[in-house]
C-alpha cells in the first residue's frame, strides 16, 4: 500500500468528535474490521491487556449513557465500544495501553467513514463494571460512541505549538 504522508496527515487532521449519529446500523463485519485494527495498538511489553465490549442493546447503552452528563451520545449511537484493561496483566501501564487501543478504534472507524466520540469512564468505573458484568480486575478506560455521522463538526481551536512544545527542558521554546 502506497499512501503519501500528506494524505495521512490530512486524514488525521480531519477526524472530529461526533456526538450525533444517523439511525443506521453498522454491519458487525465492519465492527470486527475496526477491532482487528485495534489489536495492533502498542502496549508495554506487548501485553495487549485489553478487551472490547461491543454494546448494541439499547437498554444497556441507555444505562451507560446515564453514568454522567457527557455520556449522552451513547443514547443515539448505534454502537458503543467499551475498552477495558486487565489491571493485573499490565499493572504499570494498563491505562496507557488501553488508551492506545481506543485511539486505534477511533482512527479505524474514521477510515471507514464512521464518527466517534471518546466518553470518559474513570470516574464511573464501578458503575460500568456493574452494568457490563465486568470483573473488578477489568478497568473500563473508554466508551466510544460510534455511528454514521449526522453532523460534521467544525474544527475546534487548538493551542499554538509555541505554547506546548519545548526543546530539552520546560520553558525552552523550540526554535
Could you describe the 3D structure shown?
By secondary structure, this protein is α+β, with helices and mostly antiparallel strands. It has a domain at 59-150: NADH Oxidase (3-Layer(aba) Sandwich), CATH 3.40.109. It is built from 6 helices and 4 strands, in the order H-H-E-H-H-E-H-E-H-E. A 4-stranded antiparallel β-sheet has the order 1-2-4-3, sandwiched between helices. Helix 2 packs across helix 5 (94-111). The radius of gyration is 17 Å and the shape is globular. The mean pLDDT is 96. InterPro entries: Nitroreductase, Nitroreductase-like.
The string of secondary-structure elements, in order, is HHEHHEHEHE
Care to count the β-strands?
Answer: 4
What number is the mean pLDDT?
Answer: 96
Major sheet: order of its strands?
1-2-4-3
- Radius of gyration from the alpha-carbon trace, in angstroms: 17 Å
Outline the low-pLDDT stretches.
none
CATH topology category name of one domain: NADH Oxidase
Q: Give the oligomeric state of the chains in this entry, treating copies of one chain as homo and distinct chains as hetero.
A: single chain
Largest sheet: 4 strands, antiparallel
CATH top-level class of one domain = Alpha Beta
Would you spell out the secondary-structure blueprint of this structure?
Layout: H1 5-14, H2 28-38, E1 50-55, H3 58-65, H4 73-76, E2 79-86, H5 94-111, E3 115-120, H6 125-132, E4 138-147
Antiparallel strand pairs: 1-2, 2-4, 3-4
